[in-house]
Design a protein that fits this description.
About 5% of the residues have low confidence. It is elongated, with a radius of gyration of 25 Å. It has a two-stranded antiparallel sheet. Helix content is 63%, strand content 1%. The longest helix is centred in the last third of the chain and has 23 residues. The chain has 19 helices and two strands. It folds into three domains: 101 residues; 129 residues, no CATH class; 64 residues, no CATH class. It is mainly alpha-helical and 341 residues long.
Length: 341
């Protein structure tokens, strides 16, 4: 049994409340968000931390050594994992209360900071003037909105109350001049459309027909567009998200094109008989070279890799599609050059 198989077996043997805290659908989707942002695999280290094979306090060093990330990136990744994945099991990981307390991040404090940001310091974030890591901020916002039901409501209230000027041209509301604040822009759109869900077609219609928008230059029009996308992402969350599994989820629009997942799974590779035929060809080629030659060792290495991939694929089939265990195995298969099933 390989190290990863042994680790997954230990994970399966954990108490249900521990295993489910880090391996449920919400946690797995959240881990996937972080993986996509930083371009690395985290399913296996999460399992290793849960079974106490890897100390959470050493996660920065692990990330730096294994993935070549900077110290600052490693700290951010650890912070995000602690906040949304490991926080519920810190007392299990560290019975020493002081150690657990040092790692813990207050959800209440996080909510307060973010709500205040959305009520008082949102304009520069939307317009791009604020130098801030939108990707990390979006991960935290999505995580809180999934788990803290009141947070979504408080965030929506915060943007209604926001009095920061988003634009600078003349702005009217109910035929009277008003400040072009974030809250007033939302009021104008709601007066035009109502509070029902809306798509990009409706948004485009507003941006091309509103007298308030027509006065703006292209840069300020883009800011209004981003504000209304942000409003939609909050108010109708999670229905406003582009997928069901966390892929492409964001609250603050980044302007990046979202790569939507294909509904149909592509063929993962040639049939098994073809794989066997390929291995037979490699074995036949191997016989042409003498023991210890570079060519023979290269072929042996390739055959060994294919064997490991096949073994991991068999193990992966025992776990539910999308589970933490299966995704961890799939990541190892991809590293070895195999395909996810």
């Amino acid at each position: 049994m390989s190290y990863i198989e042994e680790s997954i077996k230990k994970f399966q043997e954990l108490p249900a409340e521990i295993k489910n805290a880090v391996g449920d659908e919400k946690s797995v989707n959240f881990i996937s968000l972080i993986e996509k942002k930083y371009e690395l695999g985290l399913k296996l280290p999460v399992i290793l931390i849960a079974i106490k094979e890897l100390d959470l306090r050493d996660l920065e060093e692990y990330i730096i050594l294994k993935y070549g990330k900077t110290y600052e990136e490693a700290v951010d990744i650890k912070k995000e994992l602690v906040f949304k994945v490991f926080q519920p099991i810190l007392d299990y990981l560290y019975p020493d209360k002081d150690s657990a307390r040092d790692l813990a991040i207050s959800i209440t404090d996080e909510e307060k900071i973010l709500t205040e940001t959305f009520q008082e310091n949102l304009a520069d974030i939307i317009s791009g003037k604020e130098a801030i890591d939108i990707g990390s901020l979006n991960i935290r916002l999505v995580g809180l909105m999934l788990d803290e039901k009141n947070f979504k409501v408080e965030l929506e209230k915060a943007i209604y109350k926001n009095r920061e000027k988003l634009t600078h041209k003349t702005f009217t509301l109910e035929d009277k001049p008003h400040a072009p604040s974030i809250g007033n822009w939302l009021s104008d759109f709601i007066k035009w459309h109502g509070t029902e869900p809306f798509d990009s077609v409706v948004l485009s219609q507003y941006l091309t027909t509103s007298e308030n928008v027509r006065r703006l230059d292209e840069k300020e029009k883009e800011s209004v567009k981003k504000l209304l996308q942000l409003y939609r992402n909050i108010k109708f969350f999670p229905a406003s998200m582009p997928t069901d599994d966390g892929e492409g989820w964001e609250i603050i629009p980044t302007g990046e094109e979202i790569e939507k997942l294909s509904k149909a799974r592509p063929v993962s590779g040639p049939p098994k008989t073809e794989e066997e035929r390929e291995e037979d060809e490699l074995k036949a080629e191997e016989e042409q070279y003498g023991e210890g030659t570079l060519e023979r060792e290269a072929i042996e290495e390739e055959l060994d890799k294919k064997k490991k991939v096949r073994e991991l694929e068999i193990v992966a089939e025992h776990y539910k599609q999308g589970s933490l265990e299966r995704r961890a195995l799939e990541e190892e298969i991809e590293k070895l050059g195999g395909d996810k099933k």
